[in-house]
Amino acid sequence: MSVHTSTIQNLSLNEKVSRIDPHDCCFKSQINQRLKIRHAFYNFPIAQPVPTQLSINSTMPPSDVYTSIKQLLASNGVTYREVTHEPTRTSEESAKARGSDLSIGGKAILLKVGETFRLFVLSAAKKLDSQKIKEHFDEKRLRFATPKELQEMTGLVPGSVPPFGRPVTSFDICLDVSVTKNTEIAFNAGMLTTSIIMRMNDYLKIASPEIFEFSMEE
């Protein structure tokens, strides 16, 4: 912002206003405007720091989804390993925290295909092929669920979605063939700080997904 220079530049703004020729309306108007700007600047409210979702999630109690997963596994007599770790948002971070190979990670993505939300699960080492999904369901429209939609429908944040449809979540679940090639599946269990690793045969039995190919190489 440019600064007006005058013979009274070393005076305070209030003194400048008092010494201005009352007939010099243009200059007086400029000074009054500066006083208003200064007043607005010094009275501008200071924004409070907003905690990130990551820090909030890391201190939250177990989610309803986590509890539902545990109940589902227990009711089916499934054995599994549970790993508690630092909050992880990406598949790479999760694999490192679990001490497992990236390929056994079950990456769960909520998509809206046409007018219906469905949960798609593929190997964390693969990339989603949206064209194959469109062709499979004979739909032209496909998009990712927004974080707001995800939270409203599941109570979860991105990165914490487990590879389960009903009764854990309210969605039909689709599984890419890449996942079935592994002997185990690992996933964040409704929280960014807790993972579950279980046998693939047990997972397929209780998840009952629709299986087809919708992945590609990274």
Quick overview of this protein structure:
The chain is α+β, with helices and mostly antiparallel strands. The protein has 9 helices and 10 strands. It folds into 2 domains: 13-42, no CATH class; 53-217, YbaK protein.
Give the helix proportion (percent range): 25-40%
Radius of gyration: 29 Å
- What CATH calls the topology of the largest domain is YbaK protein
- Terminal CA distance reads 48 Å
Largest sheet: 5 strands, mixed
Mean pLDDT: 80
Tell me which CATH architecture of the largest domain applies here.
Answer: Alpha-Beta Complex
- The main sheet orders its strands as 5-2-3-6-9
- Structural class, from secondary structure content? alpha+beta
So how many helices? 9
Runs in which pLDDT lies below 50 for 5 or more consecutive residues are 1-28, 37-61
The global form is globular
Total separate domains: 2
Q: Would you report the number of β strands?
A: 10
Task: Please trace the helix and strand order, writing H or E for each element.
Answer: HHHHEHEEEHEHEHEEHEE
User: At the first level of CATH, what is the class of the largest domain?
Assistant: Alpha Beta
